[in-house]
Each structure stands twice: as structure tokens, then as C-alpha cells.
């Protein structure tokens, strides 16, 4: 439970303090993935005080993915595989943990080794409004999404896990949902503007 919660809180720190929406399935198929060199490099909230950094580099394998290293103001790090997804005229990042924290070399060193079989990795999505001159991102958040789903209960398949929304729709259904509501502030309420370091 602590490991699962710590992953949620790490993502919350990355995504501006909000608990992000998780998805069982990715937002992309192979044909939806693009690679944009302009994203590569290190981005910061404030170039005069680079306390929080987003460092994008190209992964060796798969070569169409980014390696995202996020470092917060206290020096804590997160490593994610990030895919740039183009759906019609809109772009999104699909983030997935680059290393699953509960995959231990020796599961017997865990306090509860059998519990590690019951933790699942998941995807989260970020909408990209622009790449240059600033990287402008919009993130999901659990509370506004709850309000949205109260208004549109059949908009997308989902479940609640410990009061957190987890999307269970297929990739095709997710894409249709995201495209239909991409500009709704309750779906992507978080606003992050990054400058190149």
C-alpha cells in the first residue's frame, strides 16, 4: 500500500500537486506515436531558479520514446517512459513508470513479498498546448474529473480505487473520449508552463 501511494504522490508532485487520472490502457497505438526533437532537453518552471526540472532524452529502446527524469525542489526523482501521441491536430504525452518500484531484484527483501503481485503499473496523460518557445502542458486531476463524471457518467469506462479514478476503457475508446473532451477544463485543469534551461 505504501509503495502504491508513494507512486501516486510522486506523480502528484510532478503534475503540480494534483492526483492525476490513471489509465489501465495507453492512449496510443503504434501509428499514433510521433517523435519531436524540440522536446529534448531540460525544462524548468523558472529559468532563474531551476528548482524543479523535467529532463527529456531519447530512449535507446524503444527509440520513439522519451526518457523523462523529473526532479523536484527537494531533489527527489522520478523516471518515466513518455510517448508523444498525435490524435488529429492535438498532442499528448502518455507517461508510464520507467522502473516499477516494486520489481525488486530479490522479492524476499520486501516486507510483504507476495503483495508485490497485486500492484499494477498504469498510464497517465498530459495535453500539450505548445512546445516552443515554452512547453505548455495541461494535466489531469482527480477532483475535477469526479465532477466531470458526475455530469457525464457514461463518457468513459472507469472504476474508483480508494476514491481515485482509474480509466478502464480500451485505447480506441480513450482516444475518442480524449478528443471529444480535450478542451474541457475539468479533464485537463492543471496548467504547467516550462522554459528551456
What descriptive keywords fit this protein?
17% helix, 197 residues, eight-stranded antiparallel beta barrel, globular
Element pattern in H and E: HEEEEEEEEEHEEHE
Strand content: 25-35%
Indicate the overall shape: globular
What do the pLDDT scores average to?
A: 84
What is the count of helical runs? 3
Intertermini distance: 36 Å
**What ranges have pLDDT less than 50 throughout 5 or more consecutive residues?**
1-10
SSE class: alpha+beta
Number of domains: 1
Find the count of extended strands (DSSP E, 2+ residues): 12
- Helix share bin: 10-25%
- Any idea what the radius of gyration is? 17 Å
Q: How is the largest sheet built, in terms of strand order?
A: 3-4-5-6-7-8-9-12
The biggest beta sheet reads: 8 strands, antiparallel, barrel
Give structural notes.
- The structure is a single chain.
- The chain is an alpha+beta fold.
- It has one domain.
- The strands form two sheets. Strands 3-4-5-6-7-8-9-12 form an eight-stranded antiparallel beta barrel.
- A hairpin with a 2-residue loop joins β10 and β11.
- The N terminus is likely disordered.
In short:
The protein has 197 residues and is of the alpha+beta class. Helix content is 17%, strand content 34%.
Amino acid at each position: 500500500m505504501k509503495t502504491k501511494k508513494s507512486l501516486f504522490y510522486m506523480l502528484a508532485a510532478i503534475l503540480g500537486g494534483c492526483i492525476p487520472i490513471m489509465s489501465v490502457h495507453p492512449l496510443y497505438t503504434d501509428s499514433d506515436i510521433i517523435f519531436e526533437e524540440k522536446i529534448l532537453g531540460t525544462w524548468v518552471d523558472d529559468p532563474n531558479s531551476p528548482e524543479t526540472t523535467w529532463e527529456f532524452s531519447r530512449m535507446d529502446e524503444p527509440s520513439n520514446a522519451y526518457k523523462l527524469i523529473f526532479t523536484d525542489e527537494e531533489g527527489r526523482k522520478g523516471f518515466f517512459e513518455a510517448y508523444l501521441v498525435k490524435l488529429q491536430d492535438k498532442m499528448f504525452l502518455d507517461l508510464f513508470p520507467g522502473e516499477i518500484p516494486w520489481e525488486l531484484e530479490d522479492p524476499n527483501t520486501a516486507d510483504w513479498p507476495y503483495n508485490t503481485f497485486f500492484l499494477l503499473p498504469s498510464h497517465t496523460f498530459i495535453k500539450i498546448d505548445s512546445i516552443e518557445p515554452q512547453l505548455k502542458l495541461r494535466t489531469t486531476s482527480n477532483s475535477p474529473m469526479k465532477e466531470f463524471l458526475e455530469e457525464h457518467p457514461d463518457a468513459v469506462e472507469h472504476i474508483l480505487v480508494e476514491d481515485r479514478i482509474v480509466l478502464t476503457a480500451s485505447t480506441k475508446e480513450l482516444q475518442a473520449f480524449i478528443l471529444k473532451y480535450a478542451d474541457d477544463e475539468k479533464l485537463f485543469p492543471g496548467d504547467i508552463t516550462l522554459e528551456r534551461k
